[in-house]
Structure formats: C-alpha cells, structure tokens
Amino acid sequence: MADISLFDWLAAALLLIGSIFALTGSIALLKLPDFFMRLHGPTKSTTLGVGALVIGSMLYFSTRGDGISVHELLITIFLFMTAPVSANMLAKAAMHQKLRRVKRTRGEPWEQ
Q1: Is the Cβ–Cβ distance between 72 and 51 less than 8 Å?
Q2: Where are the transmembrane segments (predicted)?
Q3: Alpha-carbon distance 22 to 1, whole Å?
Q4: CA distances (Å), 50 to each of 18, 24, 34, 102, in order?
Q5: What is the pTM of this model?
C-alpha cells in the first residue's frame, strides 16, 4: 500500500476545492445576464479556484523532492495581484461607456 502523507491529502483537497471554485466561476460567467454580474464570476471564484489549484500543485510537487517551485509561487502572486486590478478596469470602462444593467423582476428567468 502506498504511503500517503498529510501533504498529499491537503494537496488533493486544494485541487478539489480549486476545481469547484473554477467551475462555479465559469458557470456564473455563462449564466448571469449582465456584464457587471458576469464580472464577478471570473474575478472572485475563478481567481480563488485557480489560486487553490496552483497552490495545491505547488504543495504536491514540493513534497516529491523538487523543492518549492518558484514559478508556481510567482504565478499565484501575479494572479492575485492582477485579477482585481483588471476587474476594476473593466468595470470602470463599462461605466464610462454607460453600459446599462439588466433589471430583472421577481420570478423572471435569468435568460431573456
């Protein structure tokens, strides 16, 4: 039987959580009706999902004897620094273009 350590379980949990967050963000990008609502899917949950995936990968491969991967650490830092800035810039550009929000009444389906 293979020797499974606590780090393997933690890496697997991070990969699972990250994939759930990334899937949720992708579905939100597909299903939400408005640009401003769609902006939250990739910037919030998908960023956390990809961050958890990269950290889980970094943890897994660091326990295999390669040491901590600087590339994956830099990817995570770059992702968490640039995603909010790019979302803010997109929202400001949409407000500058006077992009209107979709108003939804109670009981109305999301798709129009």
Answers
A1: no
A2: 6-30, 42-61, 73-91
A3: 32
A4: 6, 12, 23, 29
A5: 0.76
Question: Which pair of structure tokens corresponds to residue 109?
Answer: 């389906």
Domain definitions of the chain by residue range:
6-96
d(CA 5, CA 79): 28
Name the amino acid, one letter, at 46. Answer: T
Q: Please give the full DSSP string across 61-106, using - where no structure is assigned.
A: HIIIII---HHHHHHHHHHHHHHHHHHHHHHHHHHHTTPPPPP--T
The closest alpha carbon to 48, from 7, 88, 84, belongs to 84
Contact assessment for residue 69 and residue 59, using Cβ atoms and an 8 Å cutoff: no
Q: Are 35 and 63 in contact (CB under 8 A)?
A: no
